Amino acid sequence: MSILLMNPQNGEILAMVNVPEFNLNDPFTLTEEFLAVNAEKQPAADAKDPEKKQELLNQMWRNRCINDTYEPGSTFKIITSSACLEAGVVKLDDTFQCPGYRMVEDRKIRCHKVGGHGTETFVQGVQNSCNPVFIDIGLRLGVDKFCEYFKQFGLLDLTGVDLPGEAGTIMHKKENIGAVELATMSFGQSFQITPVQMATTVSSLINGGVRVTPHFGMGIVDREGEKLEPFSYPERKGVVSKETSATMRTILESVVAEGSGKNAYIEGYRIGGKTATSQTLPRSANKYISSFIGFAPADNPQILGMAVIHDPQGIYYGGTIAAPVIRDIFDNILPYMGIERGPVSETKEEE
């Protein structure tokens, strides 16, 4: 599991953790937890071989939030939605039909709901995390515009996070993107990005359209703790319009209030977010990555949290196992940050 918390307004990384962890005071000792998790790939006996032990240590030391890429799955629908709204190819009340799949050329691309969602608006499609809706709007956007926004949002660049070894995005060449590739990319599959890239890009789409630089360092202080030199980091405005950003905040709040992200709901707080469940390669292995990205307060985000769970056992849906992780974290840190609970809605009180 990897968890990342950041301030979406300025890119300050407040927390970052990867499990299994290792002891920073004893970094050359392979932990029992790490060996247990990797037992299938590399037996514990490998730790006795110096070369294989070094390989294992390198794996244990990796920061999955920064060093590793993954297929983001449905959390990427935040990005597709923003691009399509910005380009004007979809409206909130546009209607779609979901029979449980969409035929794209000769490929049958399925929705997670086998029987389909039936008739739904665009907003309901986001709430339901409906793949056919995103296939449709992705095809409306087209390859040229999709690639244009992918670049405009900063997804082809490194984030510039102030830790070493950041991995770059793994993306199709534009000339190799056909209808099928565009369809699957629209709901977050067939390319890879890092978790820190995902968190940074979503931050820019909910903070009014400012691309921030994720960072740990805030400045240089003296022995007494007096700040001598504050650090500054690049920002880029105009990633999306303020109107599109405000619309996305509203839609994503409805995902938590009414849709697939309801397990992230906290009484008295306005939470926005999006779930994801993506299948890893090879697809035949039936292994998954479950994730959730959320932010609060929904109308003026001060904290963004992301949980990525690799190869969950048993239930593997992001809304079921990843959303509650962020909910529990937010429930603890929002009061600490001085963000007060608001009144509980009548609907929730009745429930």
Automatic annotation (TrEMBL):
<dbReference type="Pfam" id="PF00905">
    <property type="entry name" value="Transpeptidase"/>
</dbReference>
<dbReference type="GO" id="GO:0005886">
    <property type="term" value="C:plasma membrane"/>
</dbReference>
<protein>
    <submittedName>
        <fullName>Penicillin binding protein</fullName>
    </submittedName>
</protein>
<keyword id="KW-0472">Membrane</keyword>
<feature type="domain" description="Penicillin-binding protein transpeptidase">
    <location>
        <begin position="1"/>
        <end position="330"/>
    </location>
</feature>
<dbReference type="InterPro" id="IPR050515">
    <property type="entry name" value="Beta-lactam/transpept"/>
</dbReference>
<dbReference type="GO" id="GO:0008658">
    <property type="term" value="F:penicillin binding"/>
</dbReference>
<dbReference type="InterPro" id="IPR001460">
    <property type="entry name" value="PCN-bd_Tpept"/>
</dbReference>
<dbReference type="GO" id="GO:0071555">
    <property type="term" value="P:cell wall organization"/>
</dbReference>
<dbReference type="InterPro" id="IPR012338">
    <property type="entry name" value="Beta-lactam/transpept-like"/>
</dbReference>
